[in-house]
Amino acid sequence: MATNKVPQGPFYYPNPLDKRERMYVRENEDGQIEFRLWHRDYPHVWEEHGWLDLEIIKNAVKLYKGKDNPLKLYDIVVAKAVLKDWKE
Rounded to whole angstroms, how far apart are CA atoms 69 and 11? Predict the structure, then answer.
């Protein structure tokens, strides 16, 4: 996997066909993977939402009433691969 190297850190495209949206990933001090969404058209998302671990995301999804499942944006397998590639 070719990780995109940018100063903001490792990321992947949740929708590979839409390069306007990036999911940044990192490991926190406890070794948990955290996610943070950035979208070129909606910069306020980055500013208003901090880093989230998967447990927080899963709990938030339980409250979600929309059509699409937002959990599909947060791919732990891809995140692990991106972080591994970033470290190499």
Answer: 20
